[in-house]
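Practice set, problem 2.
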Amino acid sequence: MDWRTSIRVYGALLFAMLVWGFSFLAVKDAVATIPVLSLLFVRFAIATLLLGLAALVRRRIFLPKRDLLALAGLALLSPVGYFLFETYGVSLTQASHASILIAVIPIVVYLIAFVRKQEAATWRKTVGISLAFAGVLAIVLSAPGERGASLVGDLLVLGAVLCAATRTTLIKDALRRVTPLQLTFYQFLFSLLVFGPLAGATGFSWVSRMTATLWGEVLFLGAVCSAGAFLAMHYALAHISATSVAVSANVVPIVTLLAEVLLLGVSMTPLKVLGALLTILGVVLTQLQTTQLEPPRVAQRGG
């Protein structure tokens, strides 16, 4: 991978993590007015529309039945499983608490990828992930008994972690046959088949309570956090290892924490600062890993 590609790959990855860091605040605010299932449907409908238009323009919207079935299976893990667990979890616990728990994903990805022989166990990956997780743990321990957190919400978020980690390792196989744009488009398209009927059952009375700010949050979640950030992550996954991508999720709680400090007035303690520094060090150490098993580039084909 040359330096130009490296800039694009890691720039895309940084964009995704920054955006997702802010997404927890938007979700937390939106679910106070919009039912969870309705929010997920509208969010993914926006993403599907934008990505579908992009796929049509690039003439990459059609896929063989075999690939469609594989992508439908992946969609059950995420967006369906992941976002059901995550959104309900965020509605029951603190935004920063949820984003911190999401940072467990790299450890689960690392273990699954090692078992599936997708990646070799190296000291650099192990130390990097350990440091990043230590930083996350420091942030968790810095706020005992804070209002708004709950065990049920935390457990739901951990369910999202398991869905995301399993899917991340399986995506590497899919990206050998489809492009990042195709993968991202179909994951949201298939999710609408589940969220559409569920959202319809909750009714539409929430629409009358919507404000310009809430519509802006929904648009941000659909266009930027779903369409843009997931496309960026899948692009990165096509070039670097699953563990390298997943460990970057440790940046998300730092972004969420800083956003809460700057926007909501949450206090920043020395332990939180230490946790943030350990997390950044762990992410950097893992990304310096050079021995990676990368999938071959997908063939450039029409449709």
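Problem 2, part (b): a different protein.
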Amino acid sequence: MPASSSKWARFRPQAEAELTQLRQLLAAHAPLVAKCREIPPDFIECSALATMLHSFYSGIENILTRVTREIDSETVKGDRWHRELLQRMTEARPERPAVLSDSLRARLQDYLGFRHFFRNAYSFHFDWAEMGTLVLDCERTLQRFSDEIADFLAKEPPAGDGPSQT
């Protein structure tokens, strides 16, 4: 199997496994999210949802990191690598077409911002008014992300070719 094809072959099951985990994460929290559409969460519920948001973005970032590692054969380094990874995914590269649309990248930056906050805050700082929109939009965001990953995978170049121009 040619090298470029084997890169995509390694990436595909990794992405699918991670997407399955993300769907399981949202399914496990669905009753709480549904409740929060009607009644704001209490402290413990807000903490649980903050943890869900952190896991949610981490799963998405795992997929994007695998694109860089498996298909680009590179790593993203430095102090701003999380933001640079998102930006990089909107750019076509010699090895591949763009992974994300600019609009989805912008939305994912909101989740990245929360991830940073989560890692540096005490749980009593979690505020439903600030994080509620992210929580309530997780399913839609995951659907958009899944669709864009599926579109990306559909553009896998034939063995020995560069990225598709579609």
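Answer key, part (b): The CA atoms of residues 76 and 133 lie 29 Å apart. The chain is about 70% helix and 0% strand.
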